[in-house]
Amino acid sequence: MSRPQIFKPQLVPVTGNDAHLPAVPEALLTPAALRERFAQPPLWEVESAGDGGLAGGYSPADASVLVPLVMRDDGLHVLLTRRAAHLRAHPGQISFPGGRAEADDGSAEVTALRETEEEIGLPRSHIDIIGRLPIYTTVTAFRVTPCVALVHTGFQLKLDDFEVAEAFEVPLQFLMDPANHRRHRFESAGKSREFLSMPWANPAAPDRPDDYFIWGATAAMLRNFYRFLRA
To answer: Is residue 57 a part of any domain in this protein?
Structure first.
């Protein structure tokens, strides 16, 4: 089933936000609390299992992303990337580090670690994977497993500048507050599409607000993380 393509999501009208939903309490956003939550997960329902109708011409493929939670003195921060502008697929978009599984990876976690090291040079020695979120299926038929990890500080990133324009961190508390989740509705040729966004004002780049517009699969997986922590 074809869907209207969105090339400038920042320009799609906002239909509302989710400020009526409670934020995840700060006490649940600590390394110890997250370890416990994944060790003894609650009963919960995923909010979004995928992008909707698949685009034609794509074969299903497995992939993984890392959801890296950097343990800073002021709390956990999500490490995200901004894709290079010249890429054919999703240029300039915000994403987690990750990619397609290879035959000899053996697990979603290995894929996430390998791809993260290749894309941004984050050493495996700094990464402690604590659990998975449900598989998310993209419109291009990738079955993406998000692997949530605690990341110890003291690392030096080395970006693959062909794929990654920038790596940056967003406070987890900001992303786990639905007051910062906007709803958009896009209509084209009699078809409509709805999506979430989580625009972040990067204090290091106040003149580039569009560069930190979190939406699409990344926002959907973060929203699923929110549902998991609020269950």
So the answer is: yes
